[in-house]
Design brief:
The chain is about 25% helix and about 15% strand. By secondary structure, the protein is an alpha+beta fold. Helix 4 runs antiparallel to helix 5 and helix 5 packs across helix 8.
Length: about 450
C-alpha cells in the first residue's frame, strides 16, 4: 500500500524534517494512524523510567557532571560513556532528514550512535544533540541537549517531536524510524522522492539510500554512498560507481570530525532489525494495556493474537532475505556487539553474527533480553513465550507465522536457540527448562 503524506524521514535516532514524501507501507499495524497518548492505561506524558531520564535526574541533583571534549564534540563522548554506547556503533546519514537539515550534507553527515535502548545523534556545529531513550512500557522518549558548554547541561524532554515520531510508520506509538531514500524514477508525474522504511526483511538492494556504508559485501549492491540521494524530496539518479564495498570515507569528507571514521555496514543491519523490534514490543504492550483497562480483552483477543504472531515471527527473523555473499564491517562493532552476551556454557550468544548467509548465527532477536520485552504485560509476554517455545521445541512446525516465512529456521537452529535461551534468560516459564527438545 502506498500513501502520500507530509510525514518526515528518520535515520536511527534523531529528530526529523517534514516534507512531501511517498511512504510505502505494507503491514497491518501500519494502518493505525494514532493511539491516544493520554489514555489512562498509557499516560505517556507522565513519569518515565528510561536511561536518558535517569541520566537527567543525576545531572539535576549534581550527582554527575559531564566532561566537555574538544574538536567540536562537546558533551558527545561523555554522553555515550554514561549511556553505555560504544563509538563503534557509529553510522552516518547525509540525507536531509533532520530539523538540522541545513547543517547536514554529504560533506557533513549526521552521526548516530546506539545501543539496545538509547541513541545519540550528532551534527557538526549543530544546534542540539538529539537523543532517544526507551522506557519499558511507554516506548521511545525524545530528548535534546544544548551543545554549548554550561555550568550544568540540561537534557530536555521533547514531546513536541512526536508530530513526526508518532504515526503509521512507527506503528502509531512514539517510536523510531529508519529509512532509505530511493533514486528518482524518471517516470512522468513522480515529482518527488520515495523513502522506504527498512528492517531485516528489506532486500539488500533497497537499503541505505542517503547513508554512508563502510564494509564489504561482494557483488551484492545497495543504495548507500551516493551523494545524489542527499535530498529525499528531490533525489538524483541511481549510481553504483564508487559506491560499493567502500572501506575508507576520508576522500568524501573530513572523518577526523567524528569519533570514528566509519559508518559500519553491520551496525546498520543491526539497527534496522532493532528499530522495528522495539516498535513492535511497545505497540503490542500498549494495545494489551488499553484492552485490559477498557474491559476489551475478549473482544480484542483475535487482534492481540495477530499482533503477537507478528512479533514472534519478527523475533525469529521471519522473511529475512538470505545474503548472497558474505558481508563484513570495518569498525570494531562486529567484535564488541557479540561480547555483550549473555553467553551460555558453550560460549554461544544470540548476539553472535553469521554474516555469511544471514545476519545472526542464531536467529532469535537479542531484544528478548531487553527491558522492553520484560515490560510487556504479563498476559501477552506469557503468550509470546508459549508460542516461541512451541516453535523452538518442535511442537509447532509451522513454516510461516504472522504472515512471515520461517523456512530458513532449521531444526538445528531451533534446538540451538532453545538451549541458549534456557541458560541465559532469567524468569523463563518452568516448561522451558522441564521438557525435552524434539
Amino acid at each position: 500500500m502506498c500513501r502520500r503524506t507530509r510525514l518526515s524521514l528518520f535515520a536511527g535516532g534523531a529528530f526529523l524534517l517534514a516534507g512531501a514524501t511517498t511512504w510505502l507501507l505494507a503491514d497491518r499495524l501500519e494502518d493505525t494512524i494514532f493511539i491516544p497518548l493520554d489514555h489512562p492505561a498509557i499516560q505517556y506524558a507522565g513519569a518515565t523510567n528510561d536511561p536518558v531520564g535517569r541520566l537527567e535526574k543525576r545531572l539535576e541533583s549534581r550527582q554527575l557532571t559531564l566532561d566537555y571534549a574538544p574538536n567540536g564534540w562537546g558533551y558527545l563522548p561523555a554522553l555515550l560513556k554514561e549511556l553505555g554506547i560504544h563509538s563503534d556503533s557509529q553510522v552516518l546519514v547525509f540525507s536531509k532528514t533532520s530539523i538540522q537539515a541545513e547543517r547536514i550534507s554529504p560533506r557533513t553527515p549526521r552521526a548516530i550512535y546506539f545501543n539496545d535502548d538509547s541513541s545519540v545523534g550528532y551534527v557538526q556545529n549543530g544546534e542540539a544533540l538529539e537523543l532517544t531513550s526507551l522506557d519499558p512500557k511507554q516506548g521511545v522518549i525524545l530528548y535534546s541537549l544544548d551543545p554549548a558548554r554550561a555550568p550544568r547541561p540540561v537534557l530536555v524532554r521533547r514531546d513536541d517531536c512526536l508530530r513526526c515520531h508518532q504515526g503509521p510508520v512507527t506503528l502509531a506509538i512514539p517510536g523510531l524510524l529508519i529509512s532509505s531514500v530511493h533514486p528518482a524514477s524518471g517516470r512522468p508525474g513522480e515529482d518527488h522522492g520515495n523513502a522506504f522504511m527498512t528492517d531485516h526483511r528489506t532486500a539488500f538492494s533497497e537499503r541505505w539510500g542517503g547513508w554512508y556504508v563502510t564494509g564489504t559485501h561482494g557483488a551484492q549492491y545497495h543504495l548507500g554512498n551516493n551523494p545524489a540521494l542527499a535530498d529525499p524530496i528531490h533525489p538524483g539518479t541511481s549510481s553504483l560507481q564508487n559506491t560499493q564495498n567502500i572501506t575508507d570515507l576520508s576522500g568524501r569528507f573530513d572523518t577526523s570530525r567524528y569519533l570514528v571514521p566509519t559508518s559500519d555496514l553491520v551496525a546498520l543491519l543491526v539497527l534496522e532489525h532493532q528499530t522495528r523490534m522495539t516498535n513492535l514490543m511497545i505497540r503490542i504492550g500498549w494495545d494489551t494495556r488499553i484492552a485490559q483497562h477498557d474491559g476489551e480483552l475478549v473482544a480484542q483477543r483475535s487482534q492481540l493474537d495477530a499482533e503477537m504472531d507478528q512479533l514472534v515471527a519478527y523475533m525469529l527473523f521471519g522473511d529475512e532475505p538470505p545474503l548472497r555473499e558474505p558481508v563484513a564491517g570495518v569498525s570494531q562493532f562486529s567484535k564488541t556487539f557479540p561480547q555483550r552476551g549473555p553467553h551460555d556454557k558453550q560460549g554461544r550468544s544470540l548476539r553472535d553474527f553469521d554474516l555469511k548467509t544471514r545476519l545472526f548465527r542464531y536467529p532469535l532477536s537479542y531484544m528478548i533480553y531487553s527491558a522492553a520485552f520484560d515490560g510487556m504485560p504479563d498476559l501477552i509476554r506469557d503468550r509470546v513465550y508459549r508460542r516461541l517455545y512451541d516453535i523452538l521445541a518442535g511442537r509447532d512446525s509451522s513454516k510461516s507465522v504472522g504472515g512471515l516465512s520461517l523456512e530458513n529456521l532449521s531444526a538445528a537452529d531451533r534446538r540451538a536457540i532453545l538451549e541458549i535461551v534456557r541458560e541465559t534468560k532469567l524468569d523463563l516459564p518452568a516448561y522451558w527448562t522441564a521438557a525435552s527438545v524434539q
